[in-house]
Amino acid sequence: MAQPIKPTLTEKIPAPIKSALALLRRAGFCTYPVGGAVRDLLLGLVPKDWDIATSARPADIIRVFSCEKYRIDARGEKFGGIHIKTAGADAAFEVTTFRREADYRDLRRPETVEFADTAEQDSHRRDFTVNALYLAPSGEVLDYHGGLADLNARVIRTIGEPVRRFSEDSLRMFRAVRFCAQLDFSLEEKTREAIILCADGAAAVTPGRVCEELTKYLAAKINIAGDSGAFSALPYKARRDALLCAMSRAFGIPAPQLAPVLGLSARRLAATDKLFLPDEDYSPS
Fold first, then answer.
1. Side-by-side strand order, sheet with 51-54
2. Could you tell me the residue ranges of all domains in the chain?
3. Could you read off the pLDDT of 65-74 as tens digits, one per residue?
């Protein structure tokens, strides 16, 4: 389960994150970097965002970071998430209490959130195996779902049965395809099949979140960051149409089936598809 990693990997944790980890551990709480940051370190990438999972309850987190050095945003306290910034704004990170989630409603949010005591208990609520890796102080990666094997195989796989996981939270479908684009991974076959089966649930995701995921997806696929802002300068509706077309290709689902998510007409999507994505295959695998 726990796999040794190179000692130098923990040395790549930025100083502000190391300080935050040390504060929580000195206060007696089991604490780990988790998720995308650990995944990216293992892939040799520089993490953009840092998430910390801990046995500390929200009130404990607030108490530990209540000093002049930190600025606390406790709006997510009910769900165990506290956003922390250093006073100089040179670092920001999320500290989240270990938790279990159940009884999802609206294809998006859990009805029940119960705080947990261990990383293993916390891991079951996470979306994909490669995002459920915890970096221990000893330099081991705690892997409860085969995430290290999936990293080596370069696949995105849900934790647990994929249809159930996508039926809990439809945003996970968009995230799965976006991660494939960003990391140059493929969808594990059952995960891909589940996305097709659950596609109607995409309508439960707000247009803002859909556009956010689509933008990240297409940015990764065609290097929007290197186009000198030309894509960003396009009218909002044109960008929205193009991005939805890209996602429909990634899902392998006709654009008209996804069109209602953003209130788009099939006719306009077909025209946009030819305009923005000529002769390109944007399948993540």
1. 2-4, 140-143, 133-135, 31-34, 51-54, 92-97, 81-86, 70-73
2. 2-153, 162-276
3. 998 899 999 9
User: What's the rounded Cα separation, in Å, for the pair 96 and 55?
Assistant: 9
Structure tokens at 219: 């940015």
CATH fold for the domain made of 2-153: Beta Polymerase; domain 2 (3.30.460)
pTM for the structure as a whole: 0.77
Exposed e or buried b per residue across 12-38, where buried means at least 16 C-beta atoms within 10 angstroms of its C-beta: ebeebbeebbebbeeeebbbbbbbbbb
CATH number of the 162-276 domain = 1.10.110
What are 219-229's pLDDT values in tens digits? 776 554 444 34
Q: Which residues contact 101 (CB under 8 A, 6 or more apart)?
A: 110, 112, 113, 114, 125
